[in-house]
Structure formats: structure tokens, C-alpha cells
Write a structure and sequence with these properties.
The protein is of the alpha+beta class. The protein contains twelve helices and ten strands. It starts with a helix and ends in a 9-residue tail after the last strand.
């Protein structure tokens, strides 16, 4: 039994460490996923704590994973893991059975899983953690209490530091469709060989007082005028397709009108810079440092055109700026494109040549 518990500890611990680290690479990603749940549950008032909750959750996952492997405070962490996996299983079952959320984001954008895969994973983890929970007294610490505490403290600081860096710069590993080297127009097309959703169409008829549902492809042999249609045409999804583009709703519009100039911008000759801004600072005097005017001046000196791309239309109007260089973009798409606020893209046609957060934008042309 001791060997089984040890195997369970290592499997659970490594999976929690992996899950926490891969999401710590992009804490904004988890926070946006949390907001999807809040909106589905009509608890949008919790949106303000989504980022802090994301940061805390990633730290807890890694710390709990390390603690259960080294056997530090096994009773406390077996309880913590049980509560976490019960919560995660509830979330993944909600995603799977409600259909209101496309995916749970358990492993972030770098390891996308289907709802079925995530739910199965959590059920297996629940079983492993229950074994640990009921056998925690058999767990012997691998190290002294002092060394264990130091290891936990280092892991806490490391994950916190990773997330601080990702929030102020950009994720270490960019797994988004707007990553360096991608062509935005190509990412807006369905995948090669993709298939569309398949639907079965049904009609409801009445005959001799009985209500009958008929598949549009299999009408009865005796179908005649005695069948009277009632109700509307119904569609039932029988096979989910995979023809959804990785980038959708990427539509650039001018600030002063609703003109769609996406093709005009992305198909222009030569290099240019797109500066994605999710929201502008409330203090106008903070604009220069916020937008990194040093980098902007370098771009201007190199005679490279640049544009501000934002969904914060009212926010940008508080600043003195050449509004002909300001483009509007849907806020949801912008959050995917720009994890840091602002984010600079060096473009060649529709291809992302380079990409940096504003604090690192001096390196954009290097």
C-alpha cells in the first residue's frame, strides 16, 4: 500500500506542478477564463478579483504539488488537494454538461484539452487523491521540516516571480494565435482539411392526433397530405466540426467611422507597427511612460508607420494624439492579441515579425 500511495503522490504532485506552471506562464489567460465562468453564473461582480485569483491559484497548485511529493504537512495538503480536485471536477463537469463554456482552460492555451478529456483527467485525479487522503498517515517526509519549508518558500517565490514577469512583459512561451511568426490573415482561415458542424434536421408533424418527429432525410413511406406540419424546423448537432479559425472577429476600423480597413492595414507593403492598448491610464500625464515614447520615437525615426489599436475609444480621446493613427478592435480579440498593456507588434504584411510589451519595446527593431 505504501508503494501505491507513493506512486499516487508523484503522479498527482507532478500533474499539479505542471498545471500550475503552464498557467503561470500566462496568468491573464486563466483570469479571462474565470470571467467566462463568472458571466455564465451571473456573478460579474467577481471580475475585479479574477487576476489576483488566477495568480493565487497557480501558486497554490505548484506549492501543493511539491508539498505532497516531499511529504510536508501531508494531512493539510491532502485535504487541500481533495478540496481543489472536487472544485475542479465540478467546473469541468459544468463545462462538459452545460455547453455554456467551450473549454475549462485547465492547462492554459499551450495544452488545449476537450471538455471530455479534462473531465476524465479530473475524475482520475480525484481517485488518486482519495487514495492519498485516506492514507496520509503512511506518508513519510523526504526532508526535515526546515528544508521542506525552504523548498516550499522557493517554489512560492518562483511561481510568483514568473507571473510578475509574464504580466509586466509577455508570457515566456507564447501559445496564442498572435505569436511571433504567425500570419494573422492565415490564422483567420479555417484549418486545412477542417470539417463543418453536422446537423440533423427534424420536422414535427401531426397525424391522426399523434405528434411525430420526422428526420428530413427519412420521411415515412406513407407520407401524404394527412401529415400536418406543426412547429418550426429543428436542428440537432450530431457531429462537432473543427472549422473554427484560430483568430475570429479581427476587424480593424477607423476611430471616426465604422469603415472596415483590416485588409488595407494587413496587406500594406513594408514594415509597420501595431500598438495594442487594452485601456489607457486615467492620468494624461502618465501617457508618455505608458506608451513608451522612447520606443515610439525610434519607430518614427526609422520612418516606419505605426497605429494604436484599442477598444478603449473614450480613453484614447483623453490624450493629444494623431487620431488618424488610432484603430478600433473588439475588446475580446484585443485581450488575446495583447497580454501586456500595451503590446507592440512589428508587422510585415500580415505576418508578426516581432512582439514585445511596451516596457521592452526598445528591442522591437533590433
Amino acid at each position: 500500500m505504501k508503494i501505491i500511495v507513493t506512486i499516487c503522490r508523484w503522479l498527482v504532485g507532478l500533474l499539479f506542478i505542471f498545471s500550475g506552471l503552464i498557467k503561470a506562464n500566462d496568468p491573464h489567460g486563466l483570469s479571462y477564463k474565470m470571467r467566462e465562468f463568472f458571466e455564465a453564473w451571473h456573478t460579474e461582480f467577481l471580475n475585479s478579483i479574477s487576476l489576483s485569483s488566477s495568480i493565487a491559484m497557480n501558486i497554490v497548485e505548484v506549492v501543493a504539488g511539491i508539498a505532497i511529493i516531499i511529504g510536508w504537512r501531508s494531512k493539510f495538503f491532502s485535504w487541500l488537494l481533495l478540496l481543489l480536485i472536487a472544485f475542479f471536477t465540478f467546473l469541468t463537469s459544468y463545462v462538459l454538461f452545460s455547453g455554456k463554456i467551450a473549454a475549462c482552460g485547465c492547462f492554459g492555451d499551450c495544452v488545449p484539452l476537450t471538455p471530455q478529456q479534462t473531465f476524465t483527467k479530473d475524475v482520475v485525479l480525484l481517485i488518486l487523491i482519495l487514495i492519498i487522503f485516506f492514507s496520509y498517515k503512511k506518508i513519510q517526509p523526504l526532508f526535515s521540516a526546515k528544508i521542506s519549508f525552504v523548498m516550499i518558500a522557493i517554489s512560492f517565490a518562483t511561481v510568483a516571480g514568473m507571473q510578475w514577469y509574464a504580466l509586466n512583459h509577455l508570457p515566456f512561451k507564447d501559445c496564442l494565435p498572435f505569436k511571433k511568426g504567425n500570419n494573422i490573415l492565415e490564422q483567420m482561415k479555417p484549418p486545412v482539411g477542417a470539417v463543418s458542424d453536422s446537423f440533423a434536421i427534424f420536422y414535427t408533424y401531426k397525424k391522426n392526433g399523434q405528434t411525430i418527429k420526422i428526420n428530413a432525410e427519412k420521411f415515412p413511406d406513407d407520407f401524404d397530405s394527412t401529415y400536418v406540419q406543426v412547429g418550426e424546423e429543428e436542428k440537432t448537432l450530431i457531429r462537432k466540426g473543427n472549422n473554427t479559425p484560430k483568430i475570429s472577429d479581427f476587424t480593424l476600423k477607423t476611430l471616426d467611422s465604422s469603415n472596415n480597413i483590416t485588409d488595407q492595414i494587413l496587406n500594406q507593403q513594408g514594415k509597420y507597427v501595431l500598438i495594442f492598448v487594452k485601456e489607457f491610464p486615467a492620468n494624461p500625464r502618465a501617457f508618455d511612460s505608458f506608451i513608451n515614447m522612447t520606443a515610439l520615437n525610434k519607430i518614427s525615426d526609422a520612418k516606419i508607420p505605426y497605429y494604436l489599436v484599442t477598444s478603449d475609444v473614450e480613453g484614447v480621446k483623453a490624450f493629444t494624439f494623431d487620431y488618424s493613427r488610432v484603430l478600433k478592435l473588439d475588446g475580446t480579440v484585443l485581450k488575446t492579441a495583447a497580454r501586456a498593456n500595451p503590446t507592440y507588434f512589428l508587422m510585415q504584411g500580415a505576418t508578426i515579425v516581432n512582439k514585445f510589451a511596451a516596457v521592452d519595446a526598445d528591442k522591437l527593431l533590433n
